[in-house]
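Lecture 7 notes: from sequence to structure.
We start with the chain below.
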Amino acid sequence: MDACTRSAFVAHSMLPAYKRRIARARANVLDALAQCHKPYIAYSTGKDSTVMADLVWRRAPGVPAVYFDADACFPESHALMDRLRAAGRTIVNWETEPILDTMERVGGPTSPRSDAATMRSTVYVPIKSLVAAHGYDCSFVGLRAQENADRRRAIRRFGHLFFSQRDRIHVCWPIGWLTFEDVWAYILSNDLDYSAVYDRQFEMGLDWEDCRLSYCYGETKRTHGRWAILARGWPDLFNRFAQRFPEVRRYI
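Predicted structure tokens for the same chain:
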């Protein structure tokens, strides 16, 4: 991150509104920890889960961070998880059906069934197996209202802590009302380690607000340049993707 951008985000961390939203997020974490006995952190290696994990670990350093491993992780994110383990954090890789296998099963990454199928195979199904195997009773999830209207409505409807009938587990959205600027201000003002995927995307010309991190082979936003970014920044990963699904080359 360049010095000018870093300074702007650090300056944001001095604002009273930022401090109020962080205090609210901390209170949300404490509320969940008080009501639940065996939580875990849903960890994507992205900026939101990086902030959320730090908020939880400051109060309960032994809570594990669980990464649902669909064989679609950026190398920079693998490296981040290795660094966190070396620093003493508990990072659990929970294997799911490989996302490329899911896509193939439903007709490829451009199939209208792909989005729902990959959500099921990489999120909904593994949550059930994880909870059954380890007895977790709460999941910290880094959802934010600013990301889209659906998430905003969900956070307003359910609040920061609720019981998910689908997953049979409590869910806490501690950072639901943080802004994009709040997230980066927290990371930089607290000197948190984060995935270098973001720096690479910014170097490629993306605005910081548009730098996103998820599975490298995800189908969401394919018409907005997602696969073109993958091809430019991580050609080996893209070529692996295109070898299996040649149609993705039409999007770059």
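Points to note: The radius of gyration is 18 Å. The chain has a mean pLDDT of 93.
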